Amino acid sequence: MQIIEEVAKSLSMNREKLERESLKTFLEKELRNIEAEIYKICAKHGIRSIFELDEKLKRGTITEEEMRDDFMELDYLESKRDDLLNAMGRIPCQI
């Protein structure tokens, strides 16, 4: 991790703060990307969550063939979003 120490030194920044801020920025970027993908799928089907997509399937307003791939992708993306939010909550505010 010598590069982190070099960058921290060149920025006159504490190494731990640089690591924390870098991790926070990375997780926020990943979260934005995940949320954009979730939004695309939800907009495509006129829903706000995987539960609404499931409800449309149960009501018969959409067929399984029409939504199978999107359902699996949305389920994965929502799980990934939860993981990212959990990870973000574990980043210490101060060192």
Explain what the structure shows.
There is one protein chain. This protein is mostly helical. It has a domain at 45-88. It has 4 helices and no strands. It has helices at 2-10, 15-45, 50-59, 64-89. Helix 2 (15-45) packs antiparallel against helix 4 and helix 3 packs antiparallel against helix 4 (64-89). The protein starts with a helix and ends in a 6-residue tail after the last helix.
Concise summary:
With 95 residues, the chain is mainly alpha-helical.
Largest sheet: none
From the helix content, strand content and strand pairing, which structural class follows?
mainly alpha
Number of contiguous helices: 4
Look at the structure and give the mean pLDDT.
Answer: 91
Count all strands and give the number: 0
Enumerate the spans where pLDDT stays under 50 for 5 or more consecutive residues.
none
Amount of beta strand: under 5%
SSE pattern: HHHH
Give the tags.
single chain; 95 residues; mainly alpha; 0% strand; rod-shaped
